[in-house]
Amino acid sequence: MSASGGFLPPNRGASGLAIARVIADPDHLSRTFDDALRALAAEGLPVALAQMLNDEGTVLEFSFPEGSPQRLHAALVEKFAPCDVLVGADTLAPPHLFVSDMDSTMIGQECIDELADYAGLKEKISAITERAMQGELDFEAALRERVALLEGLEEQAISDCLSERIEPMAGARELVATLKHKGAHCVLVTGGFHHFADPIGEMLGFDRVVGNRLGVADGKLTGKLVGPVVDSSVKRSVLEEERERLGEGALVLATGDGANDIPMIEAADYGVAYHAKPKAREAANGSIGAGDLTSVLTLLGIDHSDWVAA
């Protein structure tokens, strides 16, 4: 930390190069490597340096003298898919702030879709969810429409859904625990509901949870939301608020999968799209398309020996 209270990330700004890491099957990397270098150079993205970072031959690091992180990310995904990729403007290092979406990112389900199954409405509601996550529908309008369909459902269905249907995404516990061990402040911010997000956030170890609130009366859902809606703009504002609190130089990692995650993905130093919808992936400078959430730790340069099992 600097004397003024901000952060001085390792080597930040020292090289002027963009740094990228790619994780893929070693046979796949070796087969595609030469062709990928030629193709990148032909697209105006010459590689200054390429080196293998591990003995297994699964992690390849590139230095580029030019190219925006988003453009480099897209090019590397195209050349090496299926793969996991992260590009930093001038460094790749553990973040001081981690902000993540919940549904289909930290957990393997969409909570509202699973809850809708208890009302016999999963097919109808999941179709709306998918269109909203693809960016085809206004998020708030789609959310209110789906919540209205749940009017009259017993509140007990939420507890049943949590215990019977909701599971952490592979690597979620290790990711949060390791980043916290490295000093990161971890925030779960979701367009879903506190009924789910609070216990999930506690289970995974998040320091703060931000989400929407379902209306409940006489033990049943009212079909309404209580308070303002957590949408894409709120996700980004939470990220900016937390970054400002940490001070100048704080590195920020954000993960998400849907269109409503795009503003926070774009605002982060490391915006990682996790098995994401196309629009979210296009906005990111990192993506997990092959592995699980522990790939984020590898891409950040955190050695496996430093991972925290949760």
From TrEMBL:
<dbReference type="InterPro" id="IPR004469">
    <property type="entry name" value="PSP"/>
</dbReference>
<dbReference type="InterPro" id="IPR050582">
    <property type="entry name" value="HAD-like_SerB"/>
</dbReference>
<dbReference type="InterPro" id="IPR036412">
    <property type="entry name" value="HAD-like_sf"/>
</dbReference>
<keyword id="KW-0028">Amino-acid biosynthesis</keyword>
<dbReference type="InterPro" id="IPR023214">
    <property type="entry name" value="HAD_sf"/>
</dbReference>
<dbReference type="Pfam" id="PF12710">
    <property type="entry name" value="HAD"/>
</dbReference>
<dbReference type="GO" id="GO:0006564">
    <property type="term" value="P:L-serine biosynthetic process"/>
</dbReference>
<feature type="active site" description="Proton donor">
    <location>
        <position position="103"/>
    </location>
</feature>
<feature type="active site" description="Nucleophile">
    <location>
        <position position="101"/>
    </location>
</feature>
<comment type="similarity">
    <text>Belongs to the HAD-like hydrolase superfamily. SerB family.</text>
</comment>
<keyword id="KW-0460">Magnesium</keyword>
<dbReference type="GO" id="GO:0005737">
    <property type="term" value="C:cytoplasm"/>
</dbReference>
<dbReference type="GO" id="GO:0036424">
    <property type="term" value="F:L-phosphoserine phosphatase activity"/>
</dbReference>
<keyword id="KW-0718">Serine biosynthesis</keyword>
<keyword id="KW-0479">Metal-binding</keyword>
<keyword id="KW-0378">Hydrolase</keyword>
<dbReference type="GO" id="GO:0000287">
    <property type="term" value="F:magnesium ion binding"/>
</dbReference>
<protein>
    <recommendedName>
        <fullName>Phosphoserine phosphatase</fullName>
        <ecNumber>3.1.3.3</ecNumber>
    </recommendedName>
</protein>
<comment type="pathway">
    <text>Amino-acid biosynthesis; L-serine biosynthesis; L-serine from 3-phospho-D-glycerate: step 3/3.</text>
</comment>
